[in-house]
Amino acid sequence: MSGTLYVTANMHFHEILGVLASLLEWTQDDDINIVLMGDQMRKKFNKYYGDFGKTNVMVLVAIALDPRYKMRFVNFSLRKIYHLDFKKVEELYAQVFEVLNKLYNHYSNVSSITKNDDSSSFNTNDNDGQNFVGVVKNKQMRKIYDEFYENDVEDAMEKSEFEEYLDAPPKKINNETFDILKWWSDKCTSYKVLASMTKDILAILVSTVANESTFSTSGHVVDDFHSNLIPKAVEALICTQDWLRTSNVCIDLEQLLEDVENMRKKLVAIWKIHVEGISSCCF
Asked: If you ran DSSP here, which 8-state letter would residue 206 be given?
C-alpha cells in the first residue's frame, strides 16, 4: 500500500477485508493456540477498524468507483463485517451513498458552469440577421405538449451518469491485467462528470511511507552518510532516540555527556595503542 506510481485508493479496503476474513477463520480453527492468537489480533484490529467512524469514507467511495465492484460490493462487504446487524449495514451503506451523491452533484455543478461559459461562443443569429425563437403559437398544440411532458416525460426521465453507472452490473474483468485508469479514460465520453470525479479520488494515495521506514527505525539512522558507524554507535543512536521519545523517563543530560566523553577518551587511547603497535611492527 506504499506505492506512489500506481493507484492504491481502490485497493486499501480489499486488504482490510482480507485481514478480517483471515482473523475470522482463525477464531474458528481447531487449534486452541490459533484461536487465542486470532482473538488477540481481532482486538487489535477492532482498535483501528472496528468502528466505521475510524475508517476514511473515501476508501469506500473509491471502491464504488471501481467498475469491478461498485456499491454492490460495498453492501456485500458491510454485511460480511457486521454480520446479522442489518440496521447498521443499511445506515453505513446510506452514508457512503450520500457522500457519493454529494460529490457527484458538486462535480456536476462545476461541469455545468463550465458548459455555460463555453456556450457563449455559439452564434444564435441566422443568415438574415433575425433571431429564430422556437415558440409554439397554436394553443391546442401547447396543451398537447404540456400533457405529453406531464404524463410521459416525467415518468421516463433520463438517468444521470451516476445512476447509469451504479445500475449497470459490475464488470467481470481479469484483476491481474485490469487498468482502472485506462478504463475510466476510455469511458470519459460516456461518464464525463464521473470520470472527472474519479480522477481526483483515485489520485489519493493510501500511504506515502515506504514499508521499510514503517517497520524499522534503522533506516533513519544508518543512511548513506552514517554507513561507516560501528554497531555499538548505531545501537546507541537508536536507543537514545527511543529514550528521547519516552516522556516518563528522566534523562540526566550531564551524566550522558560525561559518559560520552569517557567513551571518547577510551577510543582515543585504543587508537593510540593501535598506532603505536603498527609503528613498532614497521621498524
From this structure: S
C-alpha cell belonging to residue 57: 469514507
Tell me the three cell numbers of residue 150.
Answer: 406531464
Contacts of 108 (CB under 8 A, 6+ apart): 160, 193
User: How many Cα atoms within 13 Å fall on the side-chain side of residue 190?
Assistant: 10
Angle CA 100–76–82, to nearest 5: 100
Q: Is the per-residue pLDDT at 153 higher than 70? A: no
Query: Is 91 in contact with 53 (CB distance < 8 Å)?
Result: no
Grid cell for residue 129: 440577421
DSSP-assigned letter for residue 168: S
Mean pLDDT, rounded, for 187-195? 89
- Which has the minimum average pLDDT: 115-119, 156-160, 274-278? 115-119
Q: For residue 167, give the amino acid letter.
A: D
The values of phi and psi at residue 137, to 5°, are: -90, -25
Which pLDDT belongs to residue 79? 84
pTM above 0.70, yes or no: no
Question: What does each C-alpha distance from 164 to 155, 167, 214, 263 come to in angstroms?
Answer: 16, 5, 41, 73
Q: What are phi and psi of 281, to 5 degrees?
A: -70, -35
What do you get for the CA distance between the two ends of the chain, in Å? 62
Query: Measured in whole angstroms, how far is the alpha carbon of residue 274 from the centre of its chain?
Result: 57
Rounded to 10 deg, the angle between the 12-26 and 57-64 helix axes is 100
Q: Cell numbers of 186, please?
A: 476510455
Phi, psi torsion values for 204, nearest 5 degrees: -70, 130
Helix ranges (DSSP H) in the chain: 12-26, 32-49, 57-64, 70-81, 86-118, 139-148, 161-167, 180-186, 192-202, 211-215, 218-221, 231-245, 253-282
